[in-house]
Amino acid sequence: MKTWNTVLRLFTALFLVLFPLGSCAPAGNHDNSPTPPFSLALKDAGNSYSPFIAPSLKGSGWKLSSGVPIDSNDSVRSTPFGIIVMLNTYYPLDVSSKSADTRTTKILCLDPANGSLRWARILEPASSEIGRSDTGTAQDLFRRDSSPGNPGPVVTSPNGHHLAIMVKPYLVSGSSSDMSDQRMRIVVIDTETGDATRTFEVSGLVLGQVLTNDSLVVETSQHFYPAGTGTLNVFSLTEAQAEPTSFRTDRWLVGATSDSLLVSSQDLRRYGRLPTTLTRISISGEELGTVAGVTAVRDGSWVFRYRDPEAANAAIKAGSKDVLPRELFNIDSGAAFDITGLDVVSADLSTGPGFLLRRFVPDDNDKQKSSYVPVSWLPATPDSRELRTDAVAWFDEGDYKKQEGRYIMRTVRMGEKPG
Known about the structure:
The chain is built from four helices and 27 strands. The chain is mainly β.
């Protein structure tokens, strides 16, 4: 009997090694997940911690030059409380420090009026999704197969008060190829103070994430697509003790409004797709309506769409080069602006995210010098009701290969050709 008990114990131990319990953890379940191989920390770096030299005035704007080389894979978001720059660097930002400072993401909030620093945070470990570094997980493969910047490693809420950053995926069982063994850490930051609102963890491959004004929603799957195993995980930003909720979906999570989600049968992040119909759902999964003819989703509940989706589909499939009627449409307010024949650029404005509408103007003397001339602009907020033609301050990136003029706040005047 003693020999039999010994064999039974050995068999049980072998079973637990071969079939780890961690691989069965459901998406969004914190309690069943093992301790990650790194600790997540968001540190206050003070008001003087910056890689930039003091801003220099340039006409009615300003420019920032960096004191150290900066990684080109950065992320910029304009909010009501300032311009937020997130970057990874392989050099110490605090040049007086003797310690290595290479495994962190720097999050800096700049005053749009003069470029001065409002607050600074250091995120440990560095976000692999911003820096697009390899982690040995399925998330790397998905990121490489998606369009640049997706599946949204950094997103902001429609009101601009919150910002979510995917930090780093890891595997609970070493080199496992099972997507259920992957975890992703996400931190949500208050854009006014720079403080962490909440931190979260989800299981499985992350297909995308969005913020409503009071919730973070992350789509996960056991495949590289949502059909069959797609799950929407909902985390409250207002109730710190609230447990996450989740529900199944076979559609892609492509955007959000102030209080609802936008899902699509097509992955809008891939190029060359035909116009599609978005379904608007609540954070509990209830269908609220549809929006047809959509080609892209932007901040603040805005979408680009064709006015006549059926005619647009037929023309595109036939290879027609006719200019088709398009509009910039806000799902929350119902406001719509005709953008037929215009180039519309998503812009980081001094007051928050916005759109710059431009018209292609050939040069009378040299066709090679034709350019896009701004004709109007619009704040990307649900309450925007009319296009504006006054001058606007636009935050833009300079040449990432140069430390001089790395970031620029410049004044854009409507009808004026770029210099």
